[in-house]
Every structure is written in C-alpha cells, then in structure tokens.
Amino acid sequence: MTIAAAALLLIALGASARWTWWRASKPGLKVLCYHKVGVPPPGSRLKDLWVSPRKFRSQVKYLLDNGYATLTFSDLRKAHETGADLPEKSVLITFDDGYENNYSIAWPILKELGAKGNIFVVFNTIGKANLWHSPASEPWVNMATLEQLREMQESGVIEFGSHTMSHPRLSSLEPENAAWELAESKRQLEAALGREMFAFAYPYGDGAYAPAVREKALETGYLFDFSFTQGKTPWPWDRKAGPLDRLFIRGRDNNWDLALQLSRGASRL
C-alpha cells in the first residue's frame, strides 16, 4: 500500500468512527422521536426537526422489512401491567407537538404501510400554530385540528399522549404552574378525545430528570413519561428509576443512522 493510499484509508476510518458502528449493541426499549414530516420552510434554523416524506417512508419501510412490530402506547401498557414479553423486535414511533403534517403526511404513510404511531399533543395549540417557537428561528406552521386528531384516533393507527398545555420548560415554572400544565392537559385531552391520556412527554425533555417535576408528572396519573434524552431504557421498566428515553431521528439521518440508533442507542458521536 502506498503512503497516499494509507493516508486515505486513515482519513476514511477516522471519519467513519464518528458513527457508532464500532460500539456494541445495547439492549432496551426502542422509542423513535420525530417532530415534523415535510420540507423545512424558508428561514428555519431547526432543520433537524424536519424529516422529508421520502425519508420517513423509507425509515418506516425499513422497520417493517426488518421484522419490527410498531407499538402503540396501549400495547406498551398491556405488556407493562401484565408482565408479558414485548415482541422480540418492537419499536414505538412517537411524534412531539401534534403538527398538521403529522396528519397530512405521516399518518397516510403509516396507514399505507401498515404501521402504527403515537403523538404527544400540546393542547393549547390544537388547530393553531407552534406558538412556543420564535418565528426568528423557526417559522410558525399549522398544528393539527381537533377533527384531524379524532380522525387519526378513529383509524386505529395513531394514539395520543400529553405534551402539556403550552409547551413550557417545566422546571422554570413555579411548582403550582407546572402541576397545572401537567394535569390540565391530561384533563382537556381526555375530554376532547374521549380516551385516557396515560402517556406524557416533557417539552424539550426539561424536567424529565428533575425529581420534583417528575414526581408531579407521576402524581398527575401518567403511567408512562418520556424524556428527550438520547438512548434506550431497560425493559421491563423500573418506573421509579426514571423516565423512558428516546431515539431522536434528525432530518439528516438515513437508514444506516436508523439502524445504528436501534442497535447502539445512537448513530453518531
């Protein structure tokens, strides 16, 4: 091997080491976290929150082609409460916030391919826009309407959980205000959708590992609470030990990234 070839090989190995292929596989529950499915609008500085329709379809197809069972929150509750084993290869597909593109793009893809998903909804922005974002960094886009949420629920393809009333950083609120965000969103979503809301995701992941905030979430009556921390959580789950972590799927991720997330718990360093 020439010196030039050896140098190129070292550069290639160094670059590939940024991916986690060389790490050992890690056990644990696989929970994918998406936000928006579509094309980022002009001016978006949060492009990693957007996964293109083509990539999303490819990723869901990858899961199904590789024998994964896509679970709903109800499937997970049944296994947790009965002690039954989950399918050997199982995954939860989750979406944060409740965007209209979850209805217009993601849901039809899931329905067509025969997969299931779960959406954490910000109650006060149903039928409005993502008002918690500064338009300077992320232009406002439409959120799903209540009618659209109900249609997705009735299809049996999508289940819902809470993502608070207004998407705040819970640890920055006064305790009584944080408690209200947690409890009122549960109450309002249950009234609007006619189903128990037993799953919750912390906006920004904030408060998931803050004992006082997490205690309020569990006191509110949520069975499952999901973080935004990258990784997998041992299953069966010790609820007292901490929330369920997730695997954030970025707009730049491809199917190799997805495979590494599923096996290693992260795709890149």
Describe the fold and architecture:
It is built from eight helices and ten strands. The chain starts with a helix and ends in a 5-residue tail after the last helix. The chain has helices at residues 3-16, 53-65, 73-82, 100-113, 146-154, 175-193, 211-220, 255-264; strands at 31-34, 36-37, 50-51, 69-71, 90-97, 117-121, 158-162, 199-201, 224-230, 244-248. The strands form two sheets. Strands 1, 4, 5, 6, 7, 8, 9 and 10 form an eight-stranded parallel β-sheet that branches. Strands 2-3 form a two-stranded parallel ribbon. Helix 4 (100-113) links the parallel strand 5 (90-97) and strand 6. The chain has 269 residues and is an alpha/beta fold.
Number of helices: 8
* N→C terminal distance: 30 Å
What's the story with the biggest beta sheet?
A: 8 strands, parallel
The shape is globular
Structural class: alpha/beta
Tell me the total number of β-strands: 10
Q: Can you give the helix content as a percent range?
A: 25-40%
Stretches with pLDDT under 50, minimum 5 residues: 4-15
Instruction: Work out the radius of gyration.
Output: 19 Å
Report the average pLDDT across residues. 94
- Looking at CATH, the homologous superfamily is Glycoside hydrolase/deacetylase
Q: What is the N-to-C succession of helices and strands?
A: HEEEHEHEHEHEHEHEEH
How much of the residues is beta strand, in percent? 15-25%
Q: Under CATH, the topology is which?
A: TIM Barrel
CATH architecture: Alpha-Beta Barrel
Number of domains: 1
Level-1 CATH class name? Alpha Beta
